[in-house]
Design a protein that fits this description.
Radius of gyration: 15 Å
Bound molecules: zinc ion
Largest sheet: 3 strands, mixed
Distance between the termini: 44 Å
CATH topology: Arc Repressor Mutant, subunit A
CATH class: Mainly Alpha
Helix content: 40-55%
Length: 145
């Protein structure tokens, strides 16, 4: 079911709204996707799936680490992206395709739509900018290998 009231968040939103939306998305992710969201030092965020052999009926399927040294709007964008990785891993259609640029791109898209469906619309220009910056870093990293 789609949420009928959507909150638009951007770097211009009040810190109260940003914090509320961030916390609400964390709660939804933890309850719907069986992940645990934690904070780590630095700018970077990660999706760390629980190794298959350690999975049990009661365990989380993995941990989303969010870098604490980011603007709140970027923390929300990073959370959306890492949620997108979880959705990609769970997708019967998409999960077999694990090529880096594909999975990085699809994670930004899947995560954005997941948040939007749950009532949080991340301002699209800012989200695109964050996405493009992250994708450029990956592209450069791959070119170096
Ligand atoms: Zn990623």
């Amino acid at each position: 079911m789609k949420n009928s009231s959507v909150v638009l968040v951007s770097s211009q939103s009040s810190s109260k709204i940003l914090k509320e939306c961030f916390e609400s998305l964390i709660n939804l992710a933890e309850h719907e996707l069986w992940v645990s969201v934690e904070f780590i030092h630095g700018f970077d965020s990660f999706w760390v799936p629980t190794p298959k052999e350690e999975l049990s009926a009661l365990s989380d399927i993995g941990i989303i680490d969010i870098g604490d040294d980011q603007e709140m709007i970027h923390k929300i964008g990073s959370l959306a992206h890492e949620i997108g990785h979880v959705l990609h891993d769970q997708s019967r259609l998409l999960s077999p395709v694990q090529e880096t640029m594909f999975s990085e791109t699809i994670a930004w898209i899947l995560g954005y739509n997941w948040c939007l469906d749950r009532g949080v619309e991340i301002e699209k220009n800012e989200y695109q900018a964050q996405m493009l910056e992250a994708l450029m870093l990956y592209k450069r990293e791959l070119e170096w290998i």
